[in-house]
Design brief:
The chain is of the alpha+beta class and 233 residues long. The chain has helices spanning 15-26, 54-64, 75-78, 81-84, 93-96, 121-127, 170-183, 220-228; strands spanning 6-10, 30-34, 48-50, 67-68, 88-92, 103-107, 116-118, 136-140, 145-154, 157-166, 189-197, 201-208, 231-232. Residues 85-225 form the ATP-grasp domain.
């Protein structure tokens, strides 16, 4: 399945990533573990795929002239609200400070600051010191979660799914995320997370890029299939 394809991963050992590399090699692919990823070796960019943390993949993609397939940052604002099951809106760091707290607030662009339930604007301001007032954020009502699940999606189909937090029925989570995968406008490959919201049922939590997502209990071989489609030359 992966004959002729080389997967570039960080050299540092990681239980989940190592499971993916074993699955990759078992299906005929090669794995190159890299320390100095900012200075990559000569490789056939058409035959290379990336898997690792954001910095690793983004730097390598730039160095090698590759495109990483990622879901839109504002996906939660575009899907059917019935699939989100909570109030979520887009705003800015400046405007969100006037909302009623506590709120779950996360940056629209991942990793700009820590996503969390913030008790008040003062704590959020301290976390975001140095960011401009117009920094885009997602603001959500605070809900109680019983369980969280992850699904790897390729070509509109869930390839593997697992409950990774709390107690929930995997089949129910998979059925819900399969519906989201059919209905939403998604890239060819991505990872979807859902949460079981008390009193409301399964809800879309967020979408992640396959090239940087952890397994969270999902099948490594199916995840590897998705990862193979998440890098383009």
């Amino acid at each position: 399945m992966f004959d002729g394809l080389t997967l570039l991963v960080p050299a540092k050992a990681d239980v989940e990533r190592d499971a993916v590399t074993r699955a990759w090699e078992a299906r005929g692919g090669e794995v190159l573990r890299m320390d100095r990823f900012w200075s990559p070796p000569e490789v056939d960019r058409a035959r290379v795929r990336l898997y690792g943390n954001d910095t690793f993949c983004l730097v390598l993609a730039q160095k090698l002239g590759l495109t990483l397939v990622s879901p839109p940052d504002d996906l939660l604002l575009k899907v059917d609200p019935a699939r989100v099951k909570r109030e979520v809106h887009g705003t800015t760091l400046e405007r969100v400070s006037t909302e009623a707290f506590p709120r779950f607030i996360k940056p629209l662009v991942p990793k700009v600051f820590r996503a969390a339930v913030w008790p008040g604007p003062e704590a959020l301001a301290e976390e975001c010191r140095g960011l401009t007032p117009d920094t885009p954020v997602l603001s959500s009502e605070v809900v109680s979660l019983r369980a969280e699940a992850r699904a790897w999606v390729l070509d509109g189909r869930v390839r593997t799914c697992a409950v990774y937090e709390g107690e929930g029925v995997v089949a129910e989570a998979e059925a819900f995320l399969a519906t989201v995968a059919r209905e939403a406008v998604l890239p060819r490959v991505c990872v979807l997370d859902a949460a079981f919201v008390e009193g409301r049922g399964w809800a879309l939590l967020e979408a992640n890029a396959a090239w940087g997502a952890g397994l969270n209990g999902c099948d490594a071989a199916e995840a590897a299939r998705c990862i193979a489609e998440a890098t383009r030359a």
